[in-house]
Amino acid sequence: MSEERYCLDCGEVLRGRADKKFCNDQCRNNYNNQLNSGSYNMVRNINNILKRNRRILEELNPTGKTKVTLKKLAAKGMNFDYHTHVYHTQNGKTYHFCYEYGYLPLDNDEFLLVKREEKMD
User: Fold this and answer.
1) Taking CA atoms, which of 1, 53, 103, 107 is between 20 and 30 Å from 37?
2) What are the DSSP calls for 61-92, one per residue?
């Protein structure tokens, strides 16, 4: 006689195939959701910050190139710790981008906002 097996989620005795791990789809989904919730939450939170930063840059830069103050960016909720990539110019300047919208820190707490027009193939 084989040893009794139990559902990994609810603990009920399993009946059926020898490799069965869950008593039903609900238990399987619940188990996997619990298992992955921590990493998914972190990724979702970071994506939300990046999207908010992009929205802020888009809103403050309707023409594709403009200057704004640190105070204005901060008031909108810009989080400078998160960006998608950086671009270093030949003359040593570093632009930080949230997708196609970027900023360059200037003197006197000002920022140059830019929009990069790249064709995606």
Assistant:
1) 53
2) -TTSEEEEEHHHHHHHT--TT--SEEEE-TTS
Residue among 43, 57, 48, 42 nearest 97 (CA) = 57
CA distances from 50 to 1, 32, 73 (A): 56, 27, 14
Q: Could you tell me how many helices (H) and strands (E) the chain has, helices first? A: 2, 5
pLDDT digits (tens, 9 = 90+) for 33-42: 888 777 778 8
Q: What angle do CA 29, 8, 20 make, to 5 degrees?
A: 85
**Ranges of each domain in the chain:** 25-115
Is the entire prediction scored with pTM above 0.85?
no
Token pair belonging to 76:
């909108």
User: Measuring CA to CA, how many Å separate 6 from each of 11, 31, 33, 110?
Assistant: 5, 13, 19, 62
DSSP state, residue 112: E
Amino acid at 53: N
